Structures are given as C-alpha cells and as structure tokens.
Amino acid sequence: MVSRLHAFPFLAFVVVMATLTLNAGQALADLKLCNSTTSRVGVAIGYQDTTGWTTEGWWNIASQTCETLYKGTLPSQFVYVHAIDYDRGGEWGGKNDMCTTDKSFAIRGVQDCQKRGYKRSGFFEVDTGQSQEWTIRLTDGEGQGKAEQ
C-alpha cells in the first residue's frame, strides 16, 4: 500500500524489487528502472563517482514501462533511488539523505541540501554487486522485496 510507505519509509523495500538483467549477447552496461505499478512515477537516482556524489531526477515513468536512468558502466556498486507515486500519493524512500528539487535536476554533493536551496530526500540503497547492467523494478502490492542477482 503506497500511502503506508509514506508513513514508514523503511518499508520501501516491501514494494521494490531489484533484478539483475543479463544480456546473452553483448553487455550493454546501463541502469534501468521498470515501473511495474499501476501508477505514473517520478524517479531520482544518486550515486558516487570518482569526483563525488551526484543526484539526478526526475524521470517520469508511465505504468508498465521501463526507462534507462544511467547509460554506460555504473560508477559504483551502490545506486540510490527515490520515487514518487504521482497517481496515488506516497513514495519509495530510505535512510540515505540526498538533495533533490521539484523540477528536473543534476546536483553535485549531498551535504547541506537545504542551505544550498534544495530539498533533502531519503533514498533507498541498491547493491548492484559487480554487475555492469542492472534493472530496478518498482512493484505494487505486499510482500518482501529483495535484491536478486
């Protein structure tokens, strides 16, 4: 239940399932997000590369569609995600605070978000292992979400 997620951000994992996408041919090395919900969602990602932390958003992803959020080899093993359910309200979030805004953005750094004029939003962590290509799947419903390799 999405509204429950808003009250209990830690339960974000209940409706989120990350899955490794393998390509039998050539490896494409992208980060994708599939919206398997019945709602339109807005998605922001965060990651750390050799120059520091970056957050980017918003991708507006229609129900039952997928989008590439990061093209190329992932910059680190961990990717962070924050998503908003536009149709029913609520959000998928977590304990990792990063900077966002209401409009499209690319923000360097995760410190002092409010002092720099940004919002502070909670992101959940996705451990991609050493994979070059990864797909995150947002889902409706109850149950235990998990990351699968």
List the helices and strands and how they pair.
Blueprint: H1 2-7, E1 16-19, E2 30-36, E3 41-49, E4 52-61, E5 65-71, E6 78-85, E7 91-92, E8 96-100, E9 105-108, E10 119-127, E11 134-139, E12 147-148
Parallel strand pairs: 1-12, 2-11
Antiparallel strand pairs: 1-11, 2-5, 3-4, 3-6, 4-9, 6-7, 6-10, 8-10
Report on the architecture of this protein.
This protein has one helix at 2-7, and strands at 16-19, 30-36, 41-49, 52-61, 65-71, 78-85, 91-92, 96-100, 105-108, 119-127, 134-139, 147-148. The protein is globular, with a radius of gyration of 15 Å. The protein is built from one helix and twelve strands. The chain is mainly beta and 149 residues long. The chain starts with a helix and ends with a strand.
